[in-house]
Design goal:
alpha/beta; Helix Hairpins; eight-stranded parallel beta sheet; six-stranded parallel beta sheet; 11 helices; disordered N terminus
């Protein structure tokens, strides 16, 4: 092999090919026309070197031996590291490999030379296996394509490692791999599974604009420095989740990332950048979101791919976006509607609300609160229907109420008494749950749990209209003119507006004194005055709460 330009006829016009950049070849290695020429000698009776001969025309074992010889500095006649770096940067540009395997424990590269292995834009047509190998000075796979499985399990990369623009057509295994220096993998595409289970990253991990089409596993990986997922895309999976749980993602950058079917449970996202991130459908139970930074484009709730959410009108009432744990989630919720699942949903809403509060996003904070109260309301309803849990009834030696409705022949008096006590306890329990459910329903319909002033206003208008219809039952006696009764309203419908006028004054506790209620109308006036004071107080409370946010 020669140093400056061998007899291999393979060349690339770098300036005309968008797939290549001048940084992929060393300075001064291009001709005046911007052409790079392969530095290797051609094979006997051929015009290409062994690395550029088509795959079907060469032996995979011979290519592997030639590759091992080329990356081994032993016997090299190149005088300096700079010259060796120049050679190695271009030796395997655009190379084609078949099946490439190194035995476990292999040392890839020369430990005595501070130069990484360059495999820029190489194509690996077969399976690649570097399991338990050591890349002595790192490796640059910029723009490479792995057509088969890529196995880097338990491999050690001692220098800078780059997978920028790499495409993995099949599964890529990096489980228990150790990266001793920075890893740059911007624009990498994983079409199969990407396994980084228990991988150790000593420095920064850069996965900007990465695409994960298959399942990505980072569970129990060690990332002490910053990880960047800017613009990354985790594609939807069929019945599975990308595993990013239990990770320390402090200061991680997810700006403009799209996360579909991602599990971030129990991960630490302290001070993480989530600007413009789409986390709809992400499992966030137990995740620490302290001081995470979000903006108006950050989306937490609702199913993936849902249209932008409108906070007004019936859309808000009937189609509120929810987290993936919520039993009423529009997609496929996580769990089976159990108490544990609902507790996870409430905890997730609370965490998101805290982030929304610190980021001055009151609408998101309000939505999380409403969704949490909806879960409480549905829980009260289900507990009302179910009654006292069986384990609590049996703890006192009793039986469920449906079993104690009638005495059973042969039962002892003590057993009957326990059954009666169980029935009484169950009735009391249901009474409490009925009260809690009715209270929650009333709060929901009248003021949306204290979040909607417009519902309070609508409730006030309903009260005014309702009492205006009721006052003619007893009658209203004006200072001048006919009494306001149903009989007189039938003859003169305009008198109903007098009833509405009196109802409005009574609701607002103004009372002009130009009408005198008689009979049951006096009772109605007392009730409406109390309701008016309560509704006005609630309205002031809700407006004050919104202003405080």
């Amino acid at each position: 092999m020669t140093d400056g330009g061998g007899t291999c006829g393979h060349s690339i016009r770098v300036v005309d090919d968008d797939a290549y950049r001048e940084r992929d070849v060393p300075e001064g290695s291009l001709t005046d026309d911007g052409v790079w020429n392969c530095p290797h000698d051609a094979v006997p009776d051929g015009d290409r070197c062994i690395f550029h001969v088509p795959i079907d025309e060469k032996d995979a074992a011979a290519v592997r031996d030639a590759f091992a010889s080329a990356i081994d500095g032993t016997g090299s006649d190149i005088a300096s590291d700079d010259e060796l770096a120049r050679r190695r940067r271009t030796e395997f540009v655009d190379a084609e490999f078949g099946r490439l395997q190194f035995p476990a424990g292999s040392i890839v590269g020369d430990e005595g030379v501070g130069v990484p292995i360059y495999l820029s834009h190489a194509t690996f047509a077969g399976d690649v296996r570097f399991e338990d190998a050591t890349f002595a000075r790192g490796a640059f796979f910029t723009g490479a394509t792995f057509e088969g499985d890529a196995n880097f399990s338990e491999t050690t990369f001692r220098g800078d490692t780059r997978f920028n623009g790499v495409t993995f057509r099949e599964d890529a295994a990096f489980d228990r791999t150790v990266f001793e220096e920075e890893v740059r993998s911007g624009g990498v595409t994983f079409e199969g599974e990407a396994d980084f289970y228990r991988a150790a990253f000593a420095e920064d991990l850069n996965l900007k604009y990465a695409i994960f089409e298959g399942k990505a596993t980072f569970w129990k990986a060690t990332i002490p420095e910053t990880v960047r997922f800017n613009g990354a895309e985790f594609r939807p999976l069929d019945g599975e989740f990308h595993e990013l749980q239990e990770l320390d993602l402090t200061n991680a950058n997810f700006t403009d990332a799209t996360l579909r079917d991602v599990n971030l449970e129990a991960s630490e996202l302290i001070q993480a950048k989530l600007f413009g991130a789409d986390l709809r459908g992400v499992r966030l139970y137990g995740a620490v979101l302290t001081d995470s930074r979000v903006d108006d484009r950050t989306r937490f709730l609702g199913p993936p791919g849902a249209p932008p959410f409108s906070l007004g009108g019936l859309v808000r009432f009937w189609h509120k976006p929810r987290c993936v744990y919520d039993p009423r989630y529009d997609g496929d919720p996580v769990g089976d509607g159990t108490r544990a699942q609902r507790n996870r949903a409430k905890s997730t809403y609370r965490s998101i609300a805290e982030v929304a509060s610190s980021a001055s996003r009151p609408a998101l904070q309000s939505l999380c609160f409403v969704n949490r109260q909806d879960i409480h309301r549905r829980t009260h309803r289900d507990e009302l229907v179910r009654g006292l849990p069986r384990d609590q009834l049996e703890a006192d030696g009793g039986e469920p109420a449906d079993r104690t409705a009638a005495p059973t022949p042969g039962r002892s008096s003590a057993s009957i008494r326990r059954g009666v006590r169980a029935t009484a306890r169950n009735a009391l329990y249901r009474s409490v749950k009925l009260f809690q459910w009715l209270r929650a329903e009333l709060s929901r319909w009248t003021l949306l749990y204290g979040e909607s002033p417009w519902r309070i206003i609508a409730t006030g208008l309903t009260i005014v209209a309702g009492f205006a219809l009721l006052y003619p039952l007893g009658g209203l006696v004006p200072t001048t003119g006919p009494d306001v009764t149903y009989a007189n309203i039938a003859e003169n419908p305009r008198l109903f507006f007098d009833s509405a006028y009196f109802s409005t004054l009574t609701f607002t506790t103004l009372g002009m004194g130009d009408y005198q209620p008689i009979g049951i109308a006096r009772v109605l006036m007392s009730v409406q005055t109390s309701l008016g004071a309560i509704v006005v107080a609630m309205l002031v409370f809700v407006f004050g709460r919104r202003a405080a946010r």
